[in-house]
Amino acid sequence: MSVAFAGNSTTTGSREAGPLRVMIVDDSVVIRGLISRWIGAEHDMEVAASLRTGLEAVNQIERINPDVAVLDIEMPELDGISALPQLLAKKRDLVIIMASTLTRRNAEISFKALSLGAADYIPKPESTREASAADIFHHDLIQKIRHLGARLRRKAAVASPPLAPASPAPAPRSPVARPTAPVPAVPAASSGALTMRPFSPQAPKVLLIGSSTGGPQALMALVTELGPVIDRFPVLITQHMPPTFTTILAEHLARSSRKPAAEAVDGEPVKPGRIYLAPGGKHMRVVRSGADTVIALDDGPAVNFCKPAVDPLFTSAIDIWHGSILSVILTGMGSDGMRGGKDIVAAGGSVIAQDEASSVVWGMPGAAANAGICAAILPLNQIGAKVNRLFAGDRA
């Protein structure tokens, strides 16, 4: 059974105005009802349909024409991972957020869904009767719908810019849509909109990376290029992710980089040659223990609504490496990493941010860029090469 609201559209194009249309696909009537109420309370989104199976979603996608789909993994008739490619085949620009409970199997399926075109994932609480778990699910889901949906509309606006008078020669600095060929990172910086800093004159001795929405794909692409750095220097990563998911992400990072990668363990020494990933549900810091630098995990409150958070890692590293820190802030919602990045820059280190065009959500890197703390703002496919050059002795 489906319930549709706000007038079904008969076209498959994305709307550039009005509320985001959200299709909920879940075999749990409780979850469907909960998400429907949350969406109904938001001014900028509406429930386009509430469906029980992936098969219903595939059969009705063209009539419903949603902007965003919240897609359960385990459903009768057609499960989420099977429905995903069929939905994208019928509506290429559909934003799909996979929803699943925190099991290893579902976490593996969520990673597979990302490789098949899902925009993001969200863990469902084991029980909606747990107030804190339901509150986190509520907050995270609404934010993901809002930010991912907004990105969809920005892309649609760039693809279909307003009509302008014809000109025989293109303006060299036109702000309208750019060609698909590689472009310099964040063109706005060249016109003075963003303040850039010089790279630190100090040689980096550690690489710190923070990421969130879109981070798993970005991290797996980036680490494939960082072999020379990983061999000689420690690499520490905080990705906003729940437990179980970080375990699997570490395994994927190890395969992608062909280097040792694992969730960090409290008290273990930090050494070159391996990747340390903050485990889900714990903040990761670094501290001195005698002559060694070791991992310190803590179960304190969320920072920037996140646990693990990037800021605790960034700020703790200053006491160990001072100004010899290179930090990279990748795609993600919110502003986590910006305050820690400010502290790193104040101590003499450097910050690189991923550019907007290659980010799934330009929240975290955008906050750093707009705070004026970045020495470079680069497309994802240029960050690895730049990091390698900086660790090899480049200072510009």
UniProtKB/TrEMBL annotation:
InterPro entries: CheB-like, CheB_C, CheY-like_superfamily, Sig_transdc_resp-reg_Me-estase, Sig_transdc_resp-reg_receiver. One of its GO terms (biological process) is chemotaxis. Residues 21-139 form the Response regulatory domain. It catalyses: [protein]-L-glutamate 5-O-methyl ester + H2O = L-glutamyl-[protein] + methanol + H(+); L-glutaminyl-[protein] + H2O = L-glutamyl-[protein] + NH4(+). Keywords: Chemotaxis, Cytoplasm, Hydrolase, Phosphoprotein. The keyword Phosphoprotein applies. GO terms for molecular function: phosphorelay response regulator activity; protein-glutamate methylesterase activity; protein-glutamine glutaminase activity. One of its GO terms (cellular component) is cytoplasm. Phosphorylated by CheA. Phosphorylation of the N-terminal regulatory domain activates the methylesterase activity. Residues 159-183 are annotated as: Disordered. Residues 162-173 have a biased composition (Pro residues). Its EC number is 3.1.1.61, 3.5.1.44. Residues 198-387 form the CheB-type methylesterase domain. SUPFAM superfamilies: CheY-like, Methylesterase CheB, C-terminal domain. Involved in chemotaxis. Part of a chemotaxis signal transduction system that modulates chemotaxis in response to various stimuli. Catalyzes the demethylation of specific methylglutamate residues introduced into the chemoreceptors (methyl-accepting chemotaxis proteins or MCP) by CheR. Also mediates the irreversible deamidation of specific glutamine residues to glutamic acid. Belongs to the CheB family. This is Protein-glutamate methylesterase/protein-glutamine glutaminase. It comes from Bradyrhizobium ottawaense.
